[in-house]
Amino acid sequence: MLEQDEIQPIRIVLTYLAGRWRANQNNTVQAKEIVKHYNELLCFLINTGWNEGLSLEAELPDELMPQEYLALLDMDEV
Prior knowledge:
Elements: H1 4-24, H2 28-47, H3 67-77
Helix pairs in contact: 1-2
């Protein structure tokens, strides 16, 4: 598992990408590219053993979030 000082920069990048997506969601090509990078980075984080939720400003709409993250949230609610 990654250390907290390794996780925090990744979470900052996820928040940045989510903001870029919101600013570019009308530009379909760019928005898709942002979502692709966002999902790859979030899946990497999850695959290292990270199992926390993100802040709302760091999230994309549920339909754009990777299934691994949605499953992680479902496990937290059980």
